[in-house]
Design brief:
Bound molecules: ligand C2E, magnesium ion
Radius of gyration: 21 Å
Largest sheet: 8 strands, mixed, barrel
Structural class: alpha/beta
Shape: globular
Organism: Blastococcus haudaquaticus
Strand order of the largest sheet: 1-2-4-5-6-7-8-9
Number of strands: 10
Number of helices: 13
Strand content: 15-25%
Protein name: Diguanylate cyclase (GGDEF) domain-containing protein
Order of helices and strands: HHEEEHHEHHEHHEHEHHEHEEH
């Protein structure tokens, strides 16, 4: 019976399953090569300051220019990267490229704050602060032009370690934001004790459907108030309409980001986008 079971177990590896596993392994191998060969690209989505409506920065979002499959989005390859421990090598590439580009824009007279997404495993690996500071030093970029984004759920996984690394990064001048805030079931008490600079209010809280404006406003106002009490500024993510932008502004969000403002774009398109979207006239009283 044991022999039969053993044989059965062997038979679990049917050709179909092996193909699926092989496909994943192939993608992971390709991704590793892609990182080395610079087949990855960053697109940048403008972040708008409120109420100035001036572009204050960008978020760097990774894409993979796959030789056969075309442009792949994070949802297409980050799960594989996670399974194969490639998130930290990927993040190192992203940090280097984002800091290099931000320094190049600065040299051209365009001073922006760039946000980079970091995965939970990188936080727990203990190399994050060194990787961030190394990238800044090599690019010749000031720490105040970089923001590290960590999702709410990653923070909640190991709040003490996250708090320690947040504090360390901020001591060195790198701002930290909590991404996708309000999307998970994390303890709010834990999150507000984080030494973070920005709460990025998740798209699911910001996007409202017809007739839900009052509830959306209450949720955003609650996050903004919570942040204000803790000295943390808020950013509305996923702003898709003028009405949502007005709402975020009137409720005291310090920043907004979303398709209504701009979609993520290649680095080369950003300067002309900014030139074509001058900030709203700032009221004289504020100047
Ligand atoms: P995220 O950090 O929350 O980034 C925002 C995502 O929402 C981006 O998707 C962006 O294109 C999309 N988005 C922005 N505005 C709108 C809007 O108005 N409506 C809608 N429907 N979507 C909007 P993207 O680029 O596909 O990235 C998805 C996620 O992948 C990111 O979510 C982030 O968690 C992760 N990611 C992206 N780049 C990196 C990276 O370099 N490293 C790591 N570790 N994760 C990354
Ligand atoms: Mg993000
Ligand atoms: Mg986000
Ligand atoms: Mg998100």
């Amino acid at each position: 019976a044991a022999k039969a079971a053993g044989r059965n177990r062997v038979e679990v590896f049917t050709p179909d399953l092996r193909t699926a596993a092989e496909q994943r392994a192939t993608l992971a191998g390709e991704l590793l090569l892609a990182i080395e060969r610079d087949e990855l690209v960053l697109h940048y989505q403008p972040v708008m300051g409120l109420p100035s409506r001036r572009c204050t920065g960008v978020e760097a979002l990774v894409r993979w220019q796959h030789p056969e499959r075309g442009l792949l989005y994070p949802g297409d390859f980050l799960p594989t990267a996670r399974q194969h421990d490639l998130m930290t090598p990927l993040a190192r590439w992203v940090l280097r490229e984002a800091t290099r580009q931000t320094a190049a824009w600065r040299d051209a007279g365009l001073v922006l704050v760039t946000g980079v997404n970091i995965n939970a495993t990188h936080f727990t690996s203990g190399t994050l602060v060194d990787d961030v500071m190394g990238a800044l030093a090599d690019a010749g970029l000031d720490a105040c032009q970089l923001v590290v984004e960590l999702t709410e759920t990653s923070v909640a996984d190991d709040p003490e370690r996250a708090a320690a690394q947040f504090a360390e990064l901020r001591t060195r001048g790198v701002e930290v934001s909590i991404d996708d805030f309000g999307s998970g079931f994390s303890s709010i008490g834990q999150l507000v004790n984080m030494p973070a600079g920005v709460l990025k209010i998740d798209r699911s809280l910001v996007a409202f459907t017809e007739g839900r404006r009052r509830q959306t406003a209450a949720a955003i106002a609650a996050v903004v108030a919570l942040g204000q009490a803790c000295g943390i500024r808020s950013l509305a993510e996923g702003v898709e309409t003028a009405e949502q932008l007005d709402l975020a502004e009137s409720l005291g969000c310090s920043f907004a980001q979303g398709y209504h403002i701009a979609r993520p774009m290649p680095a080369g398109e950003l300067p002309s986008w900014i030139a074509a979207h001058p900030p709203a006239t700032i009221p004289v009283a504020l100047v």
